[in-house]
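Supplementary Text 2. Reproducibility record for the structural model of the 457-residue chain.

All settings were left at their defaults, and a single model was retained for analysis rather than an ensemble. We include the record here because the model underlies the residue-level annotations in Supplementary Table 4.
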Amino acid sequence: MTIKKIAVLLLAVVICASVLASCGNKREDTAAETLAPLAPLDLTKRNDYTADEQTVAYLAELEDSFFAVYDSPVGDFEYTVENGTCTVTKYNGVSTTVRIPDTIAGASVTALGDELFADDEILQVLYIPDSVTTLGKNLLRGCTALKALHLPLTQTEDGAENTFFIGSLFGAERYEDNPRDVPATLKYLELGGSCTSLDEFALFECRRLELVKLPESLKHLGDFSLFGCESLLSVNVDSLTSVGEYALSECRALTVLRFGKELTTIEIAALEGCSAIRNLTLPFLGGSAESNTYLGYIFGAKVFDLSAGYYPQYLTQIEILPGCEKIDDYALYECHMLTTLKLPDAVKSIGARAFSGCLYLSEVSLPRDLTTVGDAAFFGCRSLTALDFSATKLNELGVNTFYFCDGLTAVVLPDTLTTLPSSSFAGCVKLASINLESVTKIDKNAFHGCPAFEDRD
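Retained model, structure tokens:
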């Protein structure tokens, strides 16, 4: 664990210890309990790259690398044709931009020979058609000026000894040599073909890649497949159904990740070290909808109460996609920097301590189908100022639900809620407005430390 993670963890422990100590205070006096003010949150990094015009323009320029790139002249290639398929054996051209035709002499181009572009020091843009299923050895060795590459992926068989890793095209014998042999000039990689899985270690430590475009057919990222792509600014992950261990770990420049509703599993530490992520979209919180249901898991925390040391420093916005019906216990436990949380209307329950310790959470959408909020679910959410449950079906609150939400000033309860349990709003020292017309039972200390409502206890 890094020194930074240890420091964050110790801070979390100190905060929780002080709050829990106050929670256990059994004094009978009605003096308002207060905590030290929160330090101002620097939100200069809150916005994602969609608001950064310069970065958006740069990524668009990279993605346009293949725009208006037409097939290179057939005369630039030597080839053989057999059984209706073509193998390109040699390139004789001198262009900085090459697009291999998908058919030559009426035959589909399916194979590229060994060392086809070896030592071509002027080649900058190469488009290999998706018709190609066989790539020769050392195909791009010594291509030190290559900036953009369209590469068809071919499906490897289960158990195959020689799975794909990009360095093999550049002369590397092991995936560990990717950072040495893949040219630092390569910024944009567009993967094509109909492959459904990206092999383990495929793009391992391709440290200068800035944009990776995955094919829509791709459903799985193998373990460590994009590990250490530390300059990566953008990768489309919305069509994935599963993500392997450490698949995107140490992608330190990523600020936005938007997974799609088809995602079913994310393995442990898939996003560990993705320290710049600010905006995250998921269909669930944790490893899947059924297991390891706390967000820290995908950032490397093996247990929920260590999550604070693993979250990205400026993870401020999270959106959960429609289809999610519950937020489990400890789901976002001590996600301190989170400011905005979007929940779908289908969520029926929020678990115990689900958002406990989200110190800077100020905006949370409350689902229409919500019926249950667990014990201490919003414990210590000190930046919440108003909550409106009127459109929900809420009928059950746990104890200590809003304990020490000391920035909370107004709450609107639905007609379906009739009981306020023990310490539900304890320590909400600024609470000035709450409707209680439908509430028939208020348990002891429900408003302890709330000057405006303590006489209701």
